[in-house]
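Aim 2 progress update. The chain analyzed this quarter is reproduced below.
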Amino acid sequence: QFWKKNKPTASLKTMRDVTRQIVWTSGIAQGAIEAVTDYVIGTGLTYDYQIPEGIDEGMRELLEEARELANERWKDFSEREHWPELEGQLMELADRDGESFCRMFAGENGDVAVRYVAPEDVKDDEAKWPWGIVSPPDDTQLVLAYCLGKEKVPAQDMLHLRLNSDPDVPRGVPSLWPVRTAVVRSEKILRNVSKLAEIQAAIAIVRKNNYPITQENGTAWLDAQADKTKTNPWTGKSMRQKYFPAGSIIDTNATTSLEFPTAGVSLANFPPALLMSLRPIAVRLGLPDFVVTGDVSTTNFASVFVSIAPSTKRLQRKQSKVLSVMKQIHQRVRNAALAVGALPDLAAILISSVTGPEVSNRDE
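Predicted C-alpha cells:
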C-alpha cells in the first residue's frame, strides 16, 4: 500500500537522501555499517572455478588445465579492477542505500570491466517503468533489463545487490531507515552529555556580588558580560553567549537568583540511556551490542560469535545473499573469455564457487 500511494522512485530517493545525511554525519551509523561489512566480506571473498564431481580421470586432467586458466583469468580481473576493495564498498553502499549496482562491460579480448552505478541513475526517462527496471507484466521478480535514463541495459550486464525489500519489490530500502531516529537520538545524547561535562568541568566558582542594581543597569551589565550576541532563528529574540574557559570564575549580582539544573546530575546516569538508544541499531543490523555501543564490560567473548548466536545466523544469512549475487560477476568473467576463445570450451562446465570469511569465532 505504501508504494501504491507514493511514486516509487521519489519515495526511495527520500529514504536514500535522509539515510545518507545521517550516515555522513554520524560516526555511530558509519561504524555500524562498516562492522557488517567486516563480518560479511572481511578482507575479501574467495573465488574459485571447480571441477564438477563424477568426472572420469581422463577428462579431469583436461579440466584441471582449463580450471587453472580460468582462475588465472579471474586473478587478472580482480587485480585490474581492484575487485576486493570494490566488493566491500558495494556491501557498505547496499546497507546505506538499500541497494548497489555495478555495470559489467566485456571487451573484444574477453576482459571484463565493472563500473559502479548510483541507485538514482537507475530510472526510466520515458516513465514507462516506475522502478527503472524492466520486467514482464505478470512477473516483477523476473528482471529483463535496467533503465539508465533512456538506455536499456540487459540484466546480465548489471550486478544488483538488493536488501530489505519484498521479493516482488525490485528496489531495496536502506538498512538504517527503520532506526534512523535512534541514530539521531544517540548522537544528541553524546553531544549533550559531553557538553554538560565540559561546562561542569569549566566553571570553578560562581561569585555573587552584594550590591543593589537597577533593571536598566542589570541589562547593561549582562550585555557587557556577553562575548557574543545572536538572534534565535525560531523566536527572533536576541541571545547572549559567553565562552567559559577551564577554571572560569563567574560574577553575578545580588538581584540574581542562582540555580544549577545540572548541579545534582551525575554523568554516570547517562551511559545506560545511551546504550538503550544504541541497541535498536545493533538489533536492526544483526550485530552484538558491543559492536555498536563499544561497551565490552558485560561481554562474554567465549559466546559472542559461536555458531548458534543470533548475530551469527543473521550475518550468515546476509552473507549467503551477497555470495549469490557476487557469483554472477564470477561467472561473467569466465563466460566473456569463453565467448572470444580465450578459454577452452571445456571451461564452460566448471562450477563457480564463491565463499566468504567465517562469521562464527569457533569451530561449529
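The mean pLDDT is 83. Residues 230 and 236 are 10 Å apart (CA to CA). These observations will guide the mutagenesis experiments scheduled for the next reporting period.
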